[in-house]
Amino acid sequence: SWADSDTFVDRLIFVPIIDNSVVDGNRAFTIKLTSVTSGGWGTDPALDFLDTTTVTIVDDDSTPGVLGFSAPFYRVDESVGNATITVVRTNGSVGAVSVQYATSPGTATAGADYSSRSGTLSFASGQTSRTFTVPILNDTIVEFEETVLLTLSSVSGGAKLGLTNSMILIESDDGGPGSIGFLTNQFVVAEASGQAVLTVIRTSGTVGTATVDLLTYDLPPASSGVARAGLDYTAVSNRLTFASGVGTQTVVVPITVDRLVEGDEVFGVRLTNVTGGANLGALSNVPVVIRDANSFGSLSLISTNFVVNERTNAIYLTVVRSGGDTDAVSVRYFTTAGSALPGVRYVATNGTLLFPDLVTTQYIVVPIIQDVIANPALSFSVTLSNFVKAAAGPNTNAVITVYDQQSLAAAAGTVDTGAWPSPRPIRRFTAPESSWSGT
To answer: Going by fewer Cβ within 10 Å, which terminus of the chain is more open, N or C?
Structure first.
């Protein structure tokens, strides 16, 4: 209720929201205003056009999830005692699930370098991480880097498998020429940075001088996603020298910055011809991913509902380009009659909106026809179609409601469908399922 003289004063409606643990998606209900009265003080007012709103309950429950290793490799020193391996549960954690794990020899020998392990990891409902350990056996033998392979299989409880293969890299602590490899199994670089910095490390010993050759290379041709030397990056071929005691070197690969929409692209980099008694580590041939900085973007109307008074000569509908502004893109648009008829309330309109390179906003102009007759609120629609290069955004259709400038003597307690709405914004409500109420 509102007291006399209350103007633009908000009142809150509290609706209890019931939480559950069921994965049932988002749900919605409506709230409608009815039976408006003046409380005996004069004529009852009429409802404005915003007499109904929708409340969306966002489901915060999830699925059983995806089980996988937390990393593609785990690097440990042989003196660590145990390698701790983490298995994570992502994209949901509802219900009890399980997965089997096992070790197998890579270049390491079971019983000499590590102890074999296998078993089942069980996740309770809501649990998102579990670990198991692999005993690492220490010795005094000068060795190179050695590997233990890890696998996951036989998932239960409705969960799915994610990263099912990983490995343990065992680094010797007994001194020696060591193993030379890349710091990681994949380098990722933003195209806009203009360069990829690649780190090469020497592990399991740094005794004596060692050298290794590094070279970039193109992957086999594919329809897309393959970087090309001279176009996307500059080929590099270097000899790296590790002096005794030195464990790290870096190489810079120039990346070509352009305004082309290419998507992510990949090239390879490998190490060869190691000298000085060292050997190549497990990570001696890895991909480099160039993250594309460019996108055509998507086109969308800024709203699905617009209102205009008939006394306005035209309505300007804003179309925005988001997620990218590279190159010229376009979209067709057209009006469709509803309760408002072309030639009576508006002028039928169609055409093409062109967004040049770097332009992110354009307007559709629809002329509005004014008369001297009292009419109810009438509507028509505008549709976006035939997107060229750009993708379709969330709002490709909008309803335009034309309100009359002449007053209607609406009956008390009813909706005055011709009333020009106040300039206050339309509100939409979203409530998380776990909240106790929404307003």
So the answer is: N
C-alpha 162/C-alpha 76 separation (Å) is: 23
Asked if 70 contacts 42 with a C-beta cutoff of 8 angstroms, the reply is no
Q: What span, in angstroms and rounded, lies between the C-alpha atoms of 224 and 265?
A: 8
Contact present, 267 and 217 (Cβ < 8 Å): yes
Number of other CB atoms surrounding residue 259 within 10 Å:
11
Of residues 183, 116, 170, the one with CA closest to residue 143 = 170
State the average pLDDT over residues 78-107: 96
Identify the bridge partners of residue 123 per DSSP, sorted by sequence position.
Answer: 97
- pLDDT above 90 for 237: yes
Specify burial of residue 207 (Cβ count, 10 A radius: 0-12, 13-18, 19+).
middle
Nearest to 260 by CA among 212, 221, 299, 228: 228
Give the whole-angstrom CA distance, residue 85 versus residue 204.
21
Under 8 Å CB-to-CB from 137, ≥6 apart: which residues?
78, 111, 112, 113, 114, 115
How far apart CA 325 and CA 322 sit, in angstroms, is: 7
Mean pLDDT check: name the lowest of 100-109, 163-172, 308-317.
308-317
Helix, strand, coil percentages (3-state) for the chain, rounded to 5, are: 0, 45, 50
10 contacts: CB under 8 Å, gap ≥ 6 = none
Instruction: Tell me the helices (H) and strands (E) count for the chain, helix number first.
Output: 0, 32
Residue 250 CB neighbour total at 10 angstroms = 10
Residue 278 burial (CB < 10 Å; 0-12/13-18/19+)?
A: buried
**Domains of the chain in sequence order:** 1-61+418-439 (no CATH), 66-171 (2.60.40.2030), 179-291 (2.60.40.2030), 298-406 (2.60.40.2030)
Is the whole-model pTM more than 0.70?
yes
> What's the token pair of residue 377?
């609120």
Contacts of residue 47, defined as CB under 8 A and 6 or more positions apart, other chains included, come to 33, 34, 36, 413, 414, 415, 416
Largest CA distance in the chain: 101
